[in-house]
Predict the 3D structure of the following.
Amino acid sequence: MVPVSTHTAAPTEGIPSAPGAFIQDRLAGWVSDLTTLHELTERLAGTSTLDSALHELLVAGAALVGAARGLLVLEPADGRGPSRTIGLGLSHADLGHIETVPRSATAYGRFLDGLPDTGAPLASPDILGDPGLDPGCREVAARLGYAASYTHPLATGAAEAAGATGPNATARTTGRLGAAVWLYDEPAEPLERQCHLVGVYVRYAAEHLARLLELERARADAVAIAEELLPSRLPRIPGVRLAARRRAGPGAGGDWYDALPLPDNALGLAIGSVGGSGPAALAAMGRLRAGLRAYAVMEGEDPVAVLSDLELLLRMTEPSAAATALYAYCEPDRRTIVLAGAGHTPPLVTGERRTEFVETTLSAPLGMLSCWEAPSVEFTPLPGETVLFYTDGLLRRTGDTRDRAFARLHAAAAGVPKVLRQDPGAVADHVLRTVLPADGADRNAATEDVAVLAARFD
């Protein structure tokens, strides 16, 4: 926490303070306050995700008003979300108790509901001793051990000036974004100077939150579009069971997979990644997947021909783009797979007797050479084995060197418990849990997608 200066002149008994000394003390206090605001806004500006910004706002506000605990409710007035409630020094159970109080009886609830008497911050200096408050407020305060509160609305500058709250307003002009409540253990009320400081800070924070809210919504839309471009369901082919998993980074990159039934009970499996992120990568991904499906139907038994045609399509439609891809022609009744890859990571076959990478020839990504060409590879999975196709994002998300990432993936697949090996989805889930860092340690999650396609052969 950054402490707020409470510097005041120390009076000398019996001697009136000189006007110059008083002015110097006032100037020193202003400089201290400005320094504090600068430090706190710099820290807030360094946050790049909505959750981290919300937490930083709550902590900084508590320091500015001298409170120990608090909660922040994010609930944009345009109704497009996201909606979140986070606490400082409060457990989930504590937040649940607070939420049992009717919204109309709380300052933050009245503000979020747009009632006219809640346009400004509201202090409740003595909750337990205020008979005008809802009994539920006093009961929850006594149970959780706080005695006073200070509630500050979160709204963008456009909202404060124009009160924009319509459903068509964007995040930057939404108006109400939420409210922050800071709680005191004893009856208290922030000083006028503290109210001013937190007001300045919250106005800046609201604009920062609005920008991050726009980004999060755009990312969520991109992820939803990416999901729509992928298969809604996987085909059912005798002799093989399929499962797919995809973890999208906030940038919504172009990682994709596909599985389609072919004549004579054959199966085409494909996985790939388009360079870049955002709408351009999503559009390229959709075109490549659609093109590959068409080529697989026409000449699916020849993976080299499929990828050659796909390379030509990429060159004609995305002349400045590059992509990796792998296509496999499977005959489940014979348990044979013929595949070709274009700069893509090798499949991993795993079972009770072995776990090994399929040896594929080196090849360039699509769109990198004037003419792509690489030989195909044929191999035979044993009964009960699962073949994992995955994108390069799975390796990069580990944060390890490439060799160590491959070793980590191999160890994860080899360590799949026997009880899970019957289910390709369980195999894929175990590998993802084991390979990827947990609890936010994923250093490259902001830019990397991951796609996994698992095929278990009977």
